[in-house]
Amino acid sequence: MRALQTAATGMMAQELNVQVISNNIANQRTTGYKRQRAQFQDLMYETQRRPGSATSDQGNQVPAGITIGSGVKTASTPRAMSQGPLNPTEKDYDVAIRGEGFFRIRRPDGTIAYTRDGSFELDSQGQLVTADGYLVEPGITVPQNASKVTINAQGQIQATIPGQTQPQDLGQLQLARFVNKVGLESIGDNLFVETPASGQPIDGTAGSEGFGTLQQAYLEEANVNAVTEISALIAAQRAYEMNARIITAADQMLSSTTQMFRG
What we know:
This protein has about 260 residues and is of the alpha+beta class. It has two domains: about 1-30 and about 40-75 and about 225-260, no CATH class; about 85-220, no CATH class. The chain has two helices and 20 strands. The protein has helices spanning about 1-25, 225-260; strands spanning about 40, 45-50, 65-70, 70-75, 85-90, 95-100, 100-105, 110-115, 120, 130, 135, 150, 155-160, 170, 175, 185-190, 190-195, 200-205, 215, 220. Strands 7, 8, 11, 15 and 18 form a five-stranded antiparallel sheet that branches. It has a three-stranded antiparallel sheet with strand order 12-13-14, with no helix packed on it. β16 and β17 form a beta hairpin. It is elongated and about 100 Å long. The two termini are about 20 Å apart. The mean pLDDT is about 90. Keywords: Bacterial flagellum, Cell projection, Cilium, Flagellum. It is found in: Bacterial flagellum basal body. Belongs to the flagella basal body rod proteins family. This is Flagellar basal-body rod protein FlgG.
């Protein structure tokens, strides 16, 4: 019976939907995380009577045909790249992006990755790095005797050096944005990499046209709303249960048919 297979596709789709929702809830405290949602498409149809088919030699046509669907499939799991709330941390090397843009991160193999996670630290050479020790582009080194480091809204980094009356410029953080940021590929560790779908990165500085500004001593929280996720979870659970009931009903119908033949 076709209903068994159709309902099975619905159950598998809702199972994936629950997996996406559970990942969102698990990452609601992950810095810079962007929530995902599952999108679905209907599968192919079997057309038993095409709309507009002629019913007589006089040109009469049926207003609606007969088509039977074969279920549902997962189309994509795009990320919502909306701004997450900013949370104060009181750490000089924590930086949040308010608006468009990603930090540029150099991975150990030399390739560039992108992140919204601005929880940076200093390594043993005084270089600004991520929690995994990856270098933050374009490579900022803070002197060991620096007493105070400031990062302004445009990403310019300055440090107060003993014996100097004016703060010393250490460099400027670079940002990147994409024509289709939803097309970025997540590789874990709060990092994204470009893909043909995202387009090539557009590099720039914070505060310039098309780019957001920076906020020192703040971090961007995940844009996950726990209430929304729980509501979506309940809806997915009910959809799963309804598909399971269809399978139960189809099984009972097949059982009745089998008993009729036996009788």
